[in-house]
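Input.
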Amino acid sequence: MLVNILLLCAGLAVLVFSADKFVYGASAFARNLGLPPMLIGLTIVAMGSSAPEMFVAATASMDGMNDTAIGNVLGSNIANITLILGLTALLGAISVSSKTLKREIPLMLAATVLAGYLIHDGILARYEGVILLMAFLSVMGWFIYQAMNNKEADIMGEEMDAEIPKDVPTTRAIMWIVIGMVLLPLSAGWMVDGAVGIAKIYGLSDLVIGLTIIAVGTSLPELAACIAGVLKKEDDLAIGNIVGSNLFNILAVLAIPGLISPGTVDASAIDRDFYMVLATSIALAVLVLSSGAKQQLTRWHGILLLLTFIAYQYVVFTAH
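Output.
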């Protein structure tokens, strides 16, 4: 038991560290190439925040643990909105004014509906993994087009510009990219091994361990980014991190088990957990897009989101 806990904790710590350094190096390298800050933020930074989920999903899928990989995606998206945004909103009201973000949220909802349609029959086939991957590449293409051609000023672009590292030597940026790429799969393996060991001791299913311990662990980079964003008064960037991560998770990360190890999907993931992802995504859209003139998440919203997270965790564990 102690070995499994140490593996899980070490894997989680190194996973968070390596994801952060990978994003640091990749975004600094992209800035040195002269790419626009909005493009860097919408692609490299957003992908980097989902890197833990990507490598955990790949590791679990190669081990034949599809339910852990799928549970990680669904659980991470639920945790991002209920736990991460809930905790962040407790620090103070989060205002939303970015037009880019308001276009990104409907995309997240559309991606969630697409994923639900593909898995509703209880099977995630390889061709469905290809569909998700193609949808992801299409979204990336749209982001790139918008960032390169939209000259209209956007508050989120200004916030991204402030966060992307400046004056980092290219050699150092590349060094951190390489270190991140080496440590990410290694730490993901440790984390999955530790979580599986704990799950076996307590009799938890692969799905439950993916929905809970692994999902919360891989969402920690979003928690750090959101809290830092709000403390720096970069509210749009904080919510943008959540929306971008959820969009990438549901398309790019969910495609991984379909491509590597296609097969059946646990019925609970379809009948319970997917609908929780859909409900929380719709709730976020309503709160952000229909919250009146101020368009902000308040502390009361944060409390409601946290209570939702606690209730969901209770349901998952008691239903097991």
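The first helix runs from residue 2 to 32.
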